[in-house]
Specification:
Layout (H helix, E strand, L loop, with lengths): L2 H18 L4 E5 L4 E4 L1 H7 L3 H4 L15 H11 L5 E10 L3 E13 L6 E9 L1 H52 L3 H26 L5 E3 H16 L7 E6 L3 E3 H22 L8 E9 L2 E8 L16 H12 L2 E8 L2 E8 L11
Parallel strand pairs: 7-9
Antiparallel strand pairs: 1-2, 1-5, 3-4, 4-5, 6-8, 9-10, 10-12, 11-12
Helix pairs in contact: 5-6, 6-7, 6-8, 7-8, 8-9
Length: about 350
């Protein structure tokens, strides 16, 4: 067998394969002179295959490959000490303009171990880097807008809280100034509703930036605030909360908080017309995935019959119905001599707890 001829044929085959590769590839000798390049390299970088053959890689493309760091790395590859993995650099090519490139290289030896070559792969990542920069700029701009939005939201919440306090104070002053007992009661009821909205608003301020709210602590804090601000000291009413662990979107939690407020207000106003030594209101909240059930139960006198058939629905009842409709939930109530239970149920949830107070 004629080994030199076989080696020459093998090298010719390898160089021919490189020539057909669809990406820029170079084969360099041990002096980093061009033995062969892929057709893609010559076309992209504007080199003539005949005149480029045998020239140093660093002389090609107007010496744009002549980078000190790249020289050192390729020299180490020739000595078989290392490979090059994603060497990134920017150069300005006459035909292409400014480009960002990745260069990979690895050493190749013939069967005898004496012939040394370097295979160089070149990848243009300019568009990727431009896209990454645009994405980063967009991200920074979005973060800036979000921060501005948060600042405006905090300012709006602060103004709303102040406005609610002013409105509540005015209502209370008016209630003390009027002589009509009916008007006085209506003004006090309006004051309680404003204070309940202020309580929800206060909890939201404490949860600033949180998209979901843990329902147990939220309802407990809300109910505690209502108990301290709305219950007449002469009539002690025990208000407690039992809630499953779980979170809901802030928008849903706000509506549920307002429903709880209305139901507690109604229970405080109507369930105990006389002093009741063991008066209690129980708020329960159960969750199963996205379904939930809220109930507010008292041990008072139960639902009072309307004085006239077809009498208009009270404001609190109408608010609860409207909020439940927004949540796509259903309202039901059970009244007996043992008290009243109002339940608001989302979807197909079935309670695991007894419904009595």
């Amino acid at each position: 067998m004629n080994q030199p001829n076989d080696l020459a044929q093998a090298q010719a085959l390898a160089l021919a394969i490189v020539d057909t590769l669809p990406e820029p590839f170079l084969v360099l000798d041990d002096e980093l002179q061009l033995l062969a390049g892929s057709r893609c390299f010559y076309e992209v970088y504007g080199e003539d295959p005949a005149s480029a053959h045998g020239r140093s890689m660093f002389e090609l493309s107007g010496r744009q490959w002549d980078i000190p760091g790249l020289r050192q790395l390729l020299a180490a590859v020739v000595d078989d000490r290392t490979t090059i993995d994603s060497f990134e650099f920017e150069r300005n090519f006459a035909k292409l303009g400014k480009r960002t490139l990745h260069l990979n290289a690895l050493p190749i030896r013939d069967e005898s171990g004496s012939g040394r070559m370097v295979l160089v792969a070149i990848k243009d990542i300019t568009e990727r880097r431009v896209a990454e920069q645009e994405k980063q700029q967009l991200l920074e701009h979005t973060e800036e807008l979000l921060e501005q939005q948060k600042t405006l939201l905090r300012e709006m919440r602060h103004r709303i809280a102040n406005s609610l306090q002013i409105i509540a104070s005015i209502l209370l002053l008016k209630a003390g100034a009027v002589s009509s007992e009916e008007t006085k009661n209506e003004l006090r009821a309006a004051h309680q509703r404003v204070m309940s909205v202020a309580a929800v608003q206060s909890h939201l301020q404490a949860s600033d930036g949180i998209e979901q709210i843990e329902m147990g602590p939220y309802l407990t804090k809300l109910s505690s605030g209502l108990a301290s601000s709305m219950v007449d000291p002469r009539q002690h009413i025990d208000i407690t909360v039992m809630a499953d662990a779980g979170v809901l979107p802030t928008s849903h939690a706000v509506s549920i908080g307002l429903i709880v407020t209305e139901l507690i207000i109604n229970a405080v106003k109507y369930a105990f017309p006389e002093v009741h030594s063991t008066a209690r209101i129980r708020v329960t909240f159960e969750m199963a995935k996205s379904d939930w059930r809220l109930s507010v139960a008292d041990n008072g006198t139960g639902r009072r019959q309307e004085a006239e058939p077809g009498a208009s629905t009270g404001l609190g009842t109408a608010l609860v119905a409207a909020l439940a409709k927004q949540l796509k939930a259903q309202v039901s109530e059970t009244s007996s001599s043992e008290g009243l239970v109002v339940a608001v149920t989302k979807a197909t949830f079935e309670s695991r707890l007894p419904r009595a107070a």
